């Protein structure tokens, strides 16, 4: 099977490397030449353009920054829709708005090309280890067609529903994660400000009704857990600005469906404020540093 991979950034690079490792014939392209060279060094075939990579491909995977890049790659001037073969499958794993995913799916379907949106959860570490979670939108047939390729890059493959459903499920999850991270940070800081030990308070909440994923796997207070970004100056992990992007997509989706998401909106404002203070490149658990005791003498 010939696979084209477009977008070899922080996520796409290691994902494409895992496809090579799994024995697929992978043709790669990125606007950054060095990224293409790095993959060629691992056994992929370097393509000179996206069109060159797409020629003859049975499956094309894209991992691009945002919806406008994905729409333009497939449906823009001289887009890939005119160069992919009839019956090919496109897997777009970028995190984009559901509407863009549906527009691209429709544009490709008109030419007999299958499409699934398959955004991921698991971050750069999951991409490197091949343990990503894929959340797929598309028909049953398209889901089954994509599965063997996705299994070479991830561990959990979910079928969320029709086109766009993968993107909607992904941003619902990340909106909830942001709210949990803000709430957990606030609670831990309140305890600290009142003389509690963060380890003791975390242990208590882990066994109580406040228990949640951020306490179990990603404690935001430095020193409570060893191998998490909070204990490494909030470096690595999932960047504040990427969480802001996902919250922006969640708010756009809520507006379109007339849904009320007050806590998501508040989390979006808090993360925007946090980014403004120079924290955009830090891990999203650094929101912990936004909270604290006011100076009572002022
Ligand atoms: P990135 O900026 O590191 O990589 C994007 C790559 O796409 C870049 O190398 C860029 O040169 C390339 N590119 C852009 N337009 C192109 C075009 N027309 N043709 C070829 N290449 C093109 O971003 P990333 O961190 O790899 O994220 C990619 C996607 O995955 C985003 O949608 C992001 O929201 C999502 N995501 C990221 C993470 C994470 O932790 N980094 C986690 C989950 C999901």
UniProtKB/TrEMBL annotation:
Family designation: Belongs to the HIBADH-related family.
Top-level taxon of origin: Bacteria
Keyword check for Lyase: no
Record-listed E.C. numbers: 1.1.1.31
UniProt domain 6-phosphogluconate dehydrogenase NADP-binding: residue ranges: 2-161
InterPro entries (UniProt xref): 3-OH-isobutyrate_DH-rel_CS, 6-PGluconate_DH-like_C_sf, 6PGD_dom2, 6PGDH_NADP-bd, HIBADH, HIBADH-like_NADP-bd, HIBADH-related, NAD(P)-bd_dom_sf
Main enzyme class: oxidoreductase
PANTHER family: 3-HYDROXYISOBUTYRATE DEHYDROGENASE, MITOCHONDRIAL, 3-HYDROXYISOBUTYRATE DEHYDROGENASE-RELATED
Pathway membership, UniProt: Amino-acid degradation; L-valine degradation
Gene Ontology MF term list: 3-hydroxyisobutyrate dehydrogenase activity; NAD binding; NADP binding
GO term, biological process aspect, one: branched-chain amino acid catabolic process
Residue ranges of every copy of the 3-hydroxyisobutyrate dehydrogenase-like NAD-binding domain listed in the record: 164-289
Catalysed reactions, semicolon-separated: 3-hydroxy-2-methylpropanoate + NAD(+) = 2-methyl-3-oxopropanoate + NADH + H(+)
Alphabetical keyword list: Branched-chain amino acid catabolism, NAD, Oxidoreductase
Protein name in the entry: 3-hydroxyisobutyrate dehydrogenase
Active site: 170
Organism this protein belongs to: Bowmanella pacifica
Entries under PROSITE patterns matching the protein: 3_HYDROXYISOBUT_DH
Family matches, as Pfam families: NAD_binding_11, NAD_binding_2
